[in-house]
Design a protein that fits this description.
Hypothetical protein af1432; single chain; mainly alpha
Length: about 200
Amino acid sequence: MKLSAEELLDKFSKNTLHSLEVQRLALIIFDETSKTIKEMPDRYREYLKAGALLHDIGYFIDEKNHNKHSMNMILDNGIRGFDETETKIIACICRYHRGGLPNKNEHDVYSTFDKKERKIIKRLAGILKISDGLDSGHKNFVKDIKINFDEDNRIAEFLLIPETLEYLSDISNAIRKRDLYEIGFKCQSVLKWYIF
């Protein structure tokens, strides 16, 4: 019998707090992006929700290439509530939360998708990459995120609302990981702390 994403996390994860925080941030970014840049269906939100929980389960096998291990573990185990194609999409979202960009000519699983499905993966993995980068120190410094979108210039401005004004964490990991988001949504992005 297949396990739910939550049950797979409990079974394989060494750090559930990080996964839960990345999921929280990813869903905020999804909702803001859907509202300001490109409306996305609720089902895609469910893919991201599962992918964010499971993105690091590959550490159960090994730290090196843990993103690829996460993908393979999801493919091997399946996820209750998702059909085979949806499970493959979620596996690829996890695969691309770090490391190289999706490549339909070189990556076996990714190459099986049609253009629309590849776009879904790029967009959701792009959101996951930024979310993972925002919690790279596992410190939960981001309270909320707002996105302003300049449609004429295709610039998404991420305003990061801090948990506390006493210490603003380094967001350079998230800045480095914004490439796939920009490809998926055909925009440039700026991430900065919003001090009000």
